[in-house]
Structure formats: structure tokens, C-alpha cells
Amino acid sequence: MTLHPLTEADLELILPWRNTPAVRRAMVSQHEISLDEHCTWFQRLRQDPSRRWYLYQDDSGTAQGVVYFTDLDPAQGTAFWGFYARPEAPAGTGLQILFAALDTAFGELALHKLSGEVLAQAEATHELCRWFVDTYPTSAEQGQAQAGEETFYPRRRLLDSRLDAELSLAEQFDLLRVVDNARYPAFVEWRERRYALAISEAGAK
């Protein structure tokens, strides 16, 4: 079982999965998506480093679902995740997708915290979560031991987004590019006043 980065060639394959009523009910955007809209979304996705989408393939190489990571924050090692399976996927596919997603999150993406949001109507995800809790610790034993040394990071605070007025933006760009304009915006203090700064990517040069 493997995850492969989603490509433009995969779009027509996964669109019918995304448009099934069961998947649409579990999504924030619940309308039926056209192919043109799907392609436009993919072009935006390719330019957004905070999102990664993957095609899940089982041991036979058959595509069985989609995994996605959003709000990727490399500096903090955090992200949100979600998935959906193709309608005809065999029983147990959701669990296999979960394991593949965890391998990618804590391996390739080098995360240390993975969060998820579940809508009330996402019944398949509810069942997966209940299975994990109801069968614990047996369910946990199916996981894989971490490879390498554990790492821990402090929770980000507002003060972590403070810029030094005496330094150039170039010197502080690595800090500036990972701030969250809504939750912990960049700011600078100057002459007893605090000034907030917002940053967003404007595209290629």
C-alpha cells in the first residue's frame, strides 16, 4: 500500500469518487464538482505549499482512495488531514488508508502532530474512529514503531511572531513566511506602538 502525489492525470479518475453523495456530505463544499472546476482547483493546489494530495494504491497497485494534508506548517511540524475512498473499495480500505497516511505524515513530511476535523455527517470516519477507540489497545498494536529519535516542539504563541525592527525583512523572512495572519500574525514594536504585518504569496516573480 502506497501513497503517490496526485497528478493531473488522476483528476478524471478521482472526480466521480469526490462527487458521490456519501463523500460530498462529508465535505465542506457539498455541491457536485464539474471537471473544469476540478482542474482549476488542481492548478491552485500545485501552487500551494501548505497542501499535499495523494492517490492511495493498495498492494496490487489499484487506486482505492485519496489522502490530503492541509495547513502544513513545516516550522511547527503540524498539519490537518483527511481522506476518502472510491465507492467500490473493499471493506477495511479506510483503515489501510489511515496507516498509509500516518506513514507519510511522520515520515516523508516529518510532522510531529497530525490533526483532523470530522463533520457530523461523515459516518464512515465516525466508524473508523469508534473502531480505534473500542478495540484499543489492539488497534494501536497495528501501528508501527517510530524510527529515529523523538522530537518535541513547543506550542506556537503570539510572541513567537515578533519581528525585530532593527533587522531587515530578508534576515527575518523564514519567520515571516510561517506566521498565521489570523491566529498569530507577525508584528513589530516601534516607539511604544505595536504594528501588525500580514503576508501572502502573490505568485511567481
Could you characterize what this model shows?
This protein has helices spanning 11-18, 21-25, 35-46, 93-106, 123-134, 138-141, 173-176; strands at 2-5, 52-57, 63-73, 78-85, 113-116, 162-163, 186-190, 193-197. 29% of the residues lie in helices and 22% in strands. It starts with a strand and ends in an 8-residue tail after the last strand. The chain folds into two domains: 2-141, Gcn5-related N-acetyltransferase (GNAT) (Aminopeptidase), CATH 3.40.630; 158-197, no CATH class. With 205 residues, it is of the alpha/beta class. The radius of gyration is 20 Å and the shape is globular.
Helix and strand topology:
Layout: E1 2-5, H1 11-18, H2 21-25, H3 35-46, E2 52-57, E3 63-73, E4 78-85, H4 93-106, E5 113-116, H5 123-134, H6 138-141, E6 162-163, H7 173-176, E7 186-190, E8 193-197
Parallel strand pairs: 4-5, 6-7
Antiparallel strand pairs: 1-2, 2-3, 3-4, 7-8
Tag the structure with descriptive keywords:
three-stranded mixed β-sheet; 205 residues; Aminopeptidase; single chain; alpha/beta
